[in-house]
Amino acid sequence: DLSVHVTLRSNSHGSDGVINCSATGFYPANIKFTLRQGSEMLKSESPSARSEPDGTFSASSAHFFNWSTRVGDPFFCEVNHDALEEPIRTDPRRGQRDSLF
Protein backbone atom coordinates (compact mmCIF):
# COMPACT_ATOMS: atom_id res chain seq x y z
CA ASP A 1 0.00 0.00 0.00
CA LEU A 2 1.18 3.48 -0.84
CA SER A 3 2.05 5.53 2.24
CA VAL A 4 3.08 9.20 2.43
CA HIS A 5 5.18 10.93 5.09
CA VAL A 6 5.90 14.66 5.36
CA THR A 7 8.56 16.26 7.57
CA LEU A 8 9.30 19.91 8.25
CA ARG A 9 12.75 20.55 9.72
CA SER A 10 15.06 23.43 10.51
CA ASN A 11 18.76 23.88 11.15
CA SER A 12 20.07 24.38 14.70
CA HIS A 13 19.79 28.17 14.32
CA GLY A 14 16.17 27.92 13.17
CA SER A 15 16.79 30.10 10.11
CA ASP A 16 16.83 27.55 7.27
CA GLY A 17 14.29 24.81 6.76
CA VAL A 18 13.25 21.98 4.49
CA ILE A 19 9.93 20.31 3.81
CA ASN A 20 10.35 16.75 2.61
CA CYS A 21 7.61 14.53 1.22
CA SER A 22 8.24 10.83 0.73
CA ALA A 23 6.13 7.97 -0.58
CA THR A 24 6.72 4.24 -0.27
CA GLY A 25 5.03 1.04 -1.39
CA PHE A 26 3.78 2.11 -4.81
CA TYR A 27 3.76 0.42 -8.23
CA PRO A 28 4.28 1.32 -11.06
CA ALA A 29 7.18 3.74 -10.64
CA ASN A 30 5.55 6.94 -12.00
CA ILE A 31 4.55 9.32 -9.21
CA LYS A 32 3.98 13.07 -8.87
CA PHE A 33 4.66 15.25 -5.81
CA THR A 34 3.32 18.78 -5.36
CA LEU A 35 4.68 20.76 -2.40
CA ARG A 36 2.72 23.87 -1.40
CA GLN A 37 2.51 26.55 1.21
CA GLY A 38 -1.11 27.66 1.20
CA SER A 39 -2.00 28.11 -2.47
CA GLU A 40 1.62 28.72 -3.57
CA MET A 41 3.32 25.84 -5.38
CA LEU A 42 6.90 25.46 -4.12
CA LYS A 43 9.83 24.63 -6.37
CA SER A 44 11.09 21.16 -5.55
CA GLU A 45 13.35 18.52 -6.97
CA SER A 46 11.77 16.02 -9.34
CA PRO A 47 11.37 12.66 -7.67
CA SER A 48 13.14 9.64 -9.07
CA ALA A 49 11.64 6.35 -7.95
CA ARG A 50 13.88 3.77 -6.31
CA SER A 51 13.15 0.06 -6.59
CA GLU A 52 12.56 -1.73 -3.28
CA PRO A 53 13.23 -5.45 -2.55
CA ASP A 54 9.48 -6.22 -2.43
CA GLY A 55 9.00 -5.01 -6.03
CA THR A 56 7.41 -1.68 -5.09
CA PHE A 57 8.98 1.77 -5.38
CA SER A 58 9.82 4.69 -3.10
CA ALA A 59 10.53 8.35 -3.88
CA SER A 60 10.80 11.73 -2.21
CA SER A 61 10.80 15.43 -3.03
CA ALA A 62 12.08 18.39 -0.97
CA HIS A 63 11.97 22.19 -0.87
CA PHE A 64 14.61 24.22 1.01
CA PHE A 65 13.73 27.68 2.32
CA ASN A 66 14.45 30.48 4.80
CA TRP A 67 11.94 30.58 7.67
CA SER A 68 11.81 34.39 7.65
CA THR A 69 10.29 34.33 4.15
CA ARG A 70 7.87 31.47 4.91
CA VAL A 71 5.76 32.77 7.80
CA GLY A 72 2.03 32.32 7.38
CA ASP A 73 0.16 29.61 5.53
CA PRO A 74 0.81 25.95 6.41
CA PHE A 75 2.89 23.62 4.25
CA PHE A 76 1.48 20.47 2.68
CA CYS A 77 2.33 17.77 0.16
CA GLU A 78 0.07 16.25 -2.46
CA VAL A 79 0.96 12.90 -4.02
CA ASN A 80 -0.65 11.63 -7.21
CA HIS A 81 -0.24 8.08 -8.53
CA ASP A 82 -2.11 5.83 -10.97
CA ALA A 83 -3.08 3.45 -8.14
CA LEU A 84 -4.94 6.23 -6.30
CA GLU A 85 -8.54 7.22 -7.00
CA GLU A 86 -7.67 10.74 -5.81
CA PRO A 87 -4.41 12.37 -4.69
CA ILE A 88 -3.21 11.99 -1.10
CA ARG A 89 -2.80 15.37 0.61
CA THR A 90 -0.96 15.53 3.92
CA ASP A 91 0.94 18.03 6.04
CA PRO A 92 3.59 17.86 8.75
CA ARG A 93 2.42 18.00 12.34
CA ARG A 94 1.72 21.62 13.18
CA GLY A 95 4.36 23.23 15.34
CA GLN A 96 6.76 20.31 14.90
CA ARG A 97 10.16 21.50 13.67
CA ASP A 98 12.83 18.85 14.12
CA SER A 99 16.52 19.76 14.06
CA LEU A 100 18.09 18.85 10.73
CA PHE A 101 21.59 20.35 10.59
From TrEMBL:
Alphabetically ordered keywords of this record: Immunoglobulin domain
PROSITE patterns per record: IG_MHC
Keyword NAD: no
UniProt keyword Repeat present: no
Signal peptide positions on this chain: none
One Pfam family it belongs to: C1-set
Domain Immunoglobulin C1-set: 16-87
InterPro entries xrefs: Ig-like_dom_sf (IPR036179), Ig-like_fold (IPR013783), Ig/MHC_CS (IPR003006), Ig_C1-set (IPR003597)
Protein name in the entry: Immunoglobulin C1-set domain-containing protein
Organism: Erpetoichthys calabaricus (Rope fish)
